[in-house]
Amino acid sequence: MNAFNIIQILLNVLRLILQILYYICQSVYYNFFGLEEKNVNGEIVLITGAGHGIGKELAIQYACLGAKVVCLDINKQTNEQTAKEIKEIGKDAYAYECDVTKREDVFAVAKRVKEEIGDVTILVNNAGIMPCHTFLDHTVDEIIQMFNINVLGHFWMLQAYLPSMIKRNHGHIIALSSIAGIVGFSNLVPYSATKHAVRGMMDALEDELHLFNKEKSLIKFTTICPYMVDTGLCKNPKIKLNSPKDTAAQIIKAQRQNIRIKSVPSFWLPLIKFIRILPENAQIVIKDFIDTGVEPG
């Protein structure tokens, strides 16, 4: 190795250090003064599971911000009710019945959405189920259905709507993971596995687009990790549930600020990061002390 190569390596290392310091300073600044929220007026926002809970609140709140909202749900009646409530306040909403576990159904609806409304620019993969049992009490069908909805549904939606975002180099993907997608919870073993999968998928997909587009991709990714939300899925929680309305507001704020991963409430993510630097036995006693999670339902 000659002197020129050594100097080049040292310059590259120095450049890396300066970049790291810049982003540390930027992060500190944003923590004190907040991030600017981008405008979603005129964006076409598609939300799965829009018939109730977080999905319904997301649809209403995005519509109030001026977005065109596309509501998807397997339950036609509740989904159309969401769209109806949005139209009653003078905003744009469209309802499509869709089973996200069926790839052909997802692509058929995507074709209609493109023809009747336009290219989706913000995709919210929200649909999910959360049976609460001990691991051995989960039935085969229940586990398969959980992975079909909570994981494969994300894949089919992304395959249907991501290509137009890549073509235009514009878009935002939001995925609902969970605190159970960061740590494991008893009585939620298959669910925790699905939410870990969602988080891994989002990380890998963002990295892939970043590399394949030579760092020029403008498509953003936001993974949301709620703790427990009062949507009817969690039957026997050990602590007070968050409201769907407040959770939806935090999700939209995270998307508008281009935040990559956020827990709801926000303190969970930094708390988990701190706990994980401690010895394993210390992590166990802290988890036992906090005593979070759900009872079997």
TrEMBL record:
It comes from the Eukaryota. GO terms for cellular component: lipid droplet; membrane. It is found in: Membrane. CDD domains: 17beta-HSDXI-like_SDR_c. It is a multi-pass membrane protein. Keywords: Lipid metabolism, Membrane, NADP, Oxidoreductase, Transmembrane, Transmembrane helix. It holds the Pfam family adh_short. Catalyzes the reduction of all-trans-retinal to all-trans-retinol in the presence of NADPH. PANTHER family: PKSB (PTHR24322), RETINOL DEHYDROGENASE 10 (PTHR24322:SF736). Belongs to the short-chain dehydrogenases/reductases (SDR) family. This is Short-chain dehydrogenase/reductase 3. It comes from Atta cephalotes. The gene is 105625156.
